[in-house]
Amino acid sequence: MKKLKYILFISLVLLISCNGKEGGGGDGGVDPPPPVPSPTAATLNTPAKNSECLDGENVEFKWTASDNTDSYDITIKNLLTQAIISQTTTSTTLTIKLEKGNPYSWFITSKSNTTIDTAESEKWKFYLKGDPVENYSPFPADLISPKSEATVTSGSIKFEWSGSDADSGDTLKYDVYVGSANPPTTKIATNHSSSSINHAINDAGTYYWKVITKDNSGSNSDSGVAKFKVVN
């Protein structure tokens, strides 16, 4: 009887010892897998930034390969019609047919097969040559702040944008419109020389703003409208 009790006691000790080594409370847990690296942003090469681009309608886009990337999405936007072309490739060069005589923007999104994380390149603009012209219209301004759908506090609000032109010798001026109508019709600045302006809005509500970019040759472009909300 004593021998049987001794055997049972030894078996219980061994069982507890084994559970202690293999259980979740011990040091035998599996190490978590290393984090999956995210793609990095590609570097754009051609068409060059703010350039007067090529002859013909077939445009070759080139960029530098980014780390941890399996494929690239290229997004091209016609800045006059707002039409967007998007394609996916595993290469770092792609030729796309575009309409001549129009301004475009383009950027690259780097993607990986092992993570949902992505990375966007800079956004560049260019003109695709059409019939010979002496002067190109300015690129439509990029509205920086307030961004579309942003919420800002009433009082003095800083409006910021970015303007550019393929004609390097042109001087740019800006007409700025802000108001509660869409599109806004109230002009708060005419022939403004800088790319920012402060304007007071004291009443809460929904507002819209846009910028007309003008060059010294009489050409102009419309940024399009951004919507924002003012709260007290």
What does this entry look like structurally?
This protein is mainly beta and 232 residues long. It folds into 2 domains: 43-128, Immunoglobulin-like (Sandwich); 139-231, Immunoglobulins (Immunoglobulin-like, Sandwich), CATH 2.60.40. It is built from 1 helix and 18 strands. Strands 2, 4, 5, 7, 8 and 9 form a 6-stranded mixed beta sheet that branches. Strand 4 and strand 5 (84-89) form a beta hairpin. The chain is flat, with a radius of gyration of 30 Å. The protein starts with a helix and ends with a strand. Residues 6-10, 12-18 and 20-25 have low confidence and may be disordered.
CATH topology value of the largest domain: Immunoglobulin-like
Residue share in β-strands: over 45%
Order of helices and strands: HEEEEEEEEEEEEEEEEEE
CATH class membership of the largest domain: Mainly Beta
Counted up, domains total 2
- Provide the helix percentage: under 10%
- CATH architecture of the largest domain, please? Sandwich
What's the rounded overall pLDDT mean?
A: 87
How many helices does DSSP assign? 1
Residue runs with pLDDT of under 50 for 5 or more positions: 6-10, 12-18, 20-25
Radius of gyration from the CA trace? 30 Å
* Principal-axis shape: flat
Structural class: mainly beta
How would a crystallographer describe the biggest sheet?
6 strands, mixed
Q: Report the end-to-end length measured between terminal Cα atoms.
A: 87 Å
Q: What is the total tally of β strands?
A: 18
Q: Write the CATH homologous superfamily of the largest domain.
A: Immunoglobulins
